[in-house]
Design goal:
Layout: H1 27-34, E1 39-40, H2 41-44, H3 53-65, E2 69-73, E3 81-85, H4 87-90, H5 93-118
Antiparallel strand pairs: 1-3, 2-3
């Protein structure tokens, strides 16, 4: 039997919402889309075609609020807005790559466990 959990085990952690939740459907995908440089909203919609414009807008706003994405409005008609990763946003690419590698290696096991649980 293991010992009791320490009631102060999270005492050193900040009491704020995490930058993105495990399982967030779009943040990681937007990070990958912006990995190679700035993109316009319409460009992001190409690989992210299942996302609605409303959800993409919300995701980008949340990422901008958290300092991961910079929004640049170039003005003009029609309006031209680009999104780019900030230096802070770029720091997420390495752990994201590790999570993707883990997924490639273990996705079959994860799906099998889900199937077994739903049976």
């Amino acid at each position: 039997m293991t010992g009791a959990l320490d009631p102060d085990m999270f005492a050193g952690c900040a009491d704020v919402d995490p930058p993105f939740r495990v399982g967030d459907k779009w943040t990681a995908k937007v990070l990958v889309c912006l990995r190679d440089g700035p993109r316009r909203f319409s460009e992001l919609g190409v690989p992210l075609r299942p996302i609605t414009p409303k959800v993409l807008t919300g995701t980008l706003r949340a990422m901008e609020r958290d300092g991961f994405v910079r929004r640049t409005d170039h003005g003009g008609m029609p309006p031209r807005v680009e999104y780019a990763l900030t230096d802070l946003g770029r720091t997420l690419l390495t752990p994201l790559a590790a999570a993707c590698a883990w997924s490639r290696e273990h996705l079959g096991e994860l799906l099998a466990a889900r199937d077994a649980a739903s049976a």
